[in-house]
Amino acid sequence: MASTSAVAIAVEGVRKTYDEGRVTALDAVSVAVPDRQFLAVVGPSGSGKTTLLQLINRLAEPSDGLVRVEGEDVRSVSPILLRRRIGYVFQGVGLFPHLTVAENIAITPRLLGWDRARMAARVDELLELVRLDRTAHRDRYPHQLSGGERQRVGVARALAANPRIVLMDEPFGALDPINRDAIGQDYRRLHDTLGLTTMMITHDMLEAVLLADRVAVMQSGRIIAEGTPRDLMTGTHDRYVQELMQTPRRQAERLSHLMARGTSP
What is the DSSP string of 142-185? Predict the structure, then answer.
């Protein structure tokens, strides 16, 4: 984890309610993500994870509290300009089916007014970064790609305009285990190489432990625990947190048992 005092994302005492205040999605949530840190947010469905992400790039507005991006209150920034500063990767990928890979990746640079030569060079650079052959893939359409290839294009698109912050909502959840592991590790490499700040929502505790610097656990609209994977796995916490954080350990123990049984005489 990078050693820095700069805070890229700050959520301060945020509440989010719906249905005229009768439904609470977030309840007094505070979390800070330092520059260049990778934070994974885990918790059951309906715990408020995606809502938290949406508040950061103004796909939703807080009912109370403050959200800052790079020190700036997001309410003082145009939502469109804010989203062009932040990369966003989600499970459905959302590539435009009528556009080629290169055109999909270049969406934000084109909106920002980049010239063609600069966009083409950026597309080629990003295809190489996400381990796709630029000659073979840049002119293909989404339906001609595998699920793993589409997700790599989604990551490339999120990075196209050189954002310093990337938000990810279950980005690898629809992939098969081999692609999920490979793309997750490749993204972590890009996070470190490019000096990104990443907030990732995931249901997969093993994925959170292996990829993130820090993990925040949400339940019923609140953050009930936060710390490094090691701290959360070894410390004393709420029963739900303890059970959740022991899942990777149990998986490793079962695998070790199976391997030992398979090699025993």
Answer: GGGS-HHHHHHHHHHHHHTT--SEEEEESTTTTS-HHHHHHHHH
List residues bridging with 33 in a β-sheet: 9
Helix ranges, the chain (H): 49-56, 79-85, 101-105, 107-111, 116-129, 134-137, 147-159, 177-194, 205-211, 229-234, 239-263
Q: Residue 67 and residue 89: Cα distance in Å, rounded? A: 20
Q: In terms of DSSP bridges, do strands 86-90 and 197-201 run parallel, antiparallel, or are they unpaired?
A: unpaired
CB proximity list for 122: less than 8 A, separation 6 or greater: 105, 106, 109, 114, 160
Judge residue 172's burial from the number of C-beta atoms within 10 Å of its C-beta, 0-12 exposed, 13-18 middle, 19 or more buried. Answer: buried
Write down the pTM of the prediction.
0.89
- Please write the tens of the pLDDT for every residue from 30-64: 999 999 999 999 998 889 999 999 999 999 999 99
